[in-house]
Design brief:
homodimer, alpha+beta, SH3 type barrels, Fumarylacetoacetate hydrolase, domain 2, 2 domains, 5-stranded antiparallel sheet, 10 helices, globular
């Protein structure tokens, strides 16, 4: 567990006024990293830190030698903490750096936020047991939770090329689907387009091929977390997923938030990691005392929807559900320890999705498939519109934040994406 | 289909003597691309073309501006053909370039062959129907070939970080496995380590997200083919693969050959693409007349094994099986058209595995799982040793070549890998 230090003091204020607003996701206690391109187009992609509604350009502030995010991410923990300390001190009220760093600030509104780093391998886990059970019931009514679920942090490899940053727009995908009454599959636009509410772990320090990362050190290899929307075409998935797992059902688009909230920023929000009574205890490579004490994270996750009609009538996004990452069956450290136990090498810039994080109750499910019980119970929005699955023009926004008595609230910013009509 | 031109003339000879040897994989008709580092260590990684037992350094020969293989691979077809023509002419007997290009040659024995390009996304298909049927019988005796197989070119996303080049050595992986008589899984070294004989398609020209690649143009997006050994831990796979597919069973190591044999070099070896009588015809996005006429490739594939004992007693690799890529159920063009039909974007450097290519008869299966019928019928080697699955110290080599009356034989070089004992 990362130690708490003065960068976490709730009393800290910044000389950037917007960072002191009660509702900002980016107070001086957060300091998430990302990449941006100034909208004036004169400069190439830069790396920066979000502070209120501003971005501190790290190279302009003399805090980085290059704009290579992988290098920054793969620094040793002590270096990362030193950098965080330096940034925190420089952005605090009364800092001697204010005069010079003020020139290294760019308003977020004048920048295009990019993917926070080049994504290398993308792995998607399945750590939400409420999701796994609910989806399992729909795909395999007799056999919802398979015998391996409580032993193995189940995962599959995903597609990196189609991962976009918040603001991503994608065409409704077409692929083969086969309805129960049909003799043969048909190529057509998906009729069961869904979102999946996930967090993504951005790997910082990698490991050499053959070297398993022990659970005790696993979290040091995580650089931070982002929000992840793992868009899914359920009808495509149902037809294609046997025997090798989802493919075209998931690889047309995945959206992440632009700011990586670091493990250091999340340090106050650790929670005990527990197993429900009666469930098997994990194998030793997935378990230790420190992990039990601190292995989970208390992060509130929310999904919002804005239909085209809502947009046209000036209605803001409406919240569909809220869940908490504390409820995940497998933790960040367990995902990393499991992924590498066979010697598989992780690299800076790898992304590990947590899988859909649903709350135990169906109305707080992290996907429409679960929320509507496979399409049987439509969601009715405040303006009277109904949804079973996503319609063209729908915009889905995910948000996350951490709150704890005695600490400043920090947030993840937004992960938004919009469905465009299928191409003819 | 790529047109034949003078670069394919069987009568061409090279001023590099070893390229004219009857048994070379790299005559002047082949000209595969790869990357290498001179063993003297003075230079960084370069790109080159294999010719006999030599490498032509493309930048030293004035044929490339940089050592960025992705740029070379993503050139338009006409540019690629022009480059091939220029290299072919310069390496022919009597070429005016001989005097200058002789200085751009480096003996292969003095170079370390690297991955032919940085691998971006890796997708592994399942196009070998004999393999799918044989493996399906072992995993699901009642239901070997699932209903989607003859409609969907089944695939899953694989792991890029652990792909190595021929010569790769890896530790026997440990992971959770659960034997039938056990109450709980155990973390232990795999007892059912296998190889899988595949070809890999290296993508050259990518596509923009949202743009499906039509079957008629699909093959233009392939830059060339390599050999691929998709090492697999069968006991790990059996325990973990439901419901999202293989993960730790495959991501510890995959090995490819160092030279990309281009689609231009393979042009003489196209074959008609056919469906067995009674099988469904593919959907329109996977089918057209030209594809039926030329969509397959006649490529002989072979697997060889050398045990530690054979190595100690001076015995060469022994051939275990031979199959032909002509027998694949889905073609290169169909893999590309299917992968992108939902708008998924491919990029230069993506690798698409064909899945295991087994011949119809069990003794020519492309994996030990099939070859031994799940471990029931051990393979007996000439020195009396037996194998059910791979043992520590085993070296597996794959080779491939194309032969056709009236054309020069071309080969793929070697794809070799060695199993090291599990780490304690």
């Amino acid at each position: 567990m990362t130690m708490l230090d003065t960068t976490h003091d709730a009393s800290l204020q910044s000389w950037v006024p917007s960072a002191n607003a009660a509702d900002t996701d980016f107070p001086v206690q957060n300091l998430p990293f990302g990449r941006f391109s100034p909208k004036d187009g004169a400069q190439t992609m830069r790396i920066g830190v979000a502070i209120g509604d501003q971005i501190l350009d790290l190279r302009a502030a003399g805090l980085a030698d290059s704009d290579d995010m992988h290098t920054l991410m793969s620094a040793e923990a002590s270096e990362r903490q030193a950098l965080r300390s330096k940034i925190s001190q420089g952005l605090r009220l009364g800092s001697a750096q204010q005069a010079t760093w003020a020139n290294a600030l760019i308003p977020m509104a004048q920048a295009t936020l990019e993917l926070p780093c080049e994504i290398r391998d993308y792995t998607d886990f399945y750590t939400g047991i409420h999701h796994a059970t609910a989806v399992g019931t729909l795909f395999r009514p007799d056999n919802p939770l398979l015998p391996n679920y409580k032993w193995v942090p189940i995962a599959y490899h995903g597609r990196s090329s189609s991962i976009g940053v918040s603001g991503q727009k994608f065409f409704r995908p077409s692929a083969q689907t086969r309805n129960p009454q049909e003799d043969a599959p048909v190529l057509r636009p998906t009729q069961r387009l869904d979102y999946e509410l996930e967090l993504g772990v951005m790997i910082g320090i990698g490991n050499v091929s053959g070297d398993a990362i022990p659970i005790a050190r696993a979290q040091q290899h995580a650089f931070g977390l982002v929000l992840l929307n793992d868009w899914s075409a359920r009808d495509v998935q149902a037809w294609e997923y046997q025997p090798l797992g989802p493919f075209l059902a998931k690889n047309f688009a995945s959206t992440i938030s632009p700011w990586i909230v670091t493990m250091e920023a999340l340090a106050p929000f650790h929670a005990p990691w527990t197993r429900p009574a009666g469930d098997p205890q994990p194998l030793a490579y997935l378990d230790d005392a420190s992990h039990r004490a601190h292995g989970a994270f208390d992060i509130t996750l929310e999904v919002f929807l804005q239909t085209e009609k809502m947009r046209e009538t000036g209605l803001a996004h409406e919240r569909l559900s809220s869940s908490n990452y504390r409820d995940a069956y497998w933790s960040v450290a367990q995902m990393i320890a499991h992924h590498t136990v066979n010697g598989c090498n992780l690299r800076a810039g790898d992304l590990l999705g947590t899988g859909t994080q649903s709350a135990p109750e169906p109305e707080n499910a992290g996907s429409l498939l679960e929320r509507t019980a496979g399409g049987r119970n439509p969601v009715t929005l405040k303006n009277g519109e109904q949804r079973i699955f996503l319609q063209d023009g729908d915009s889905v926004t995910m948000r996350a934040h951490c709150e704890r008595e005695g600490f400043r609230r920090i947030g993840f910013g937004e992960c938004e994406g919009t469905v465009l009509p299928a191409r003819s």
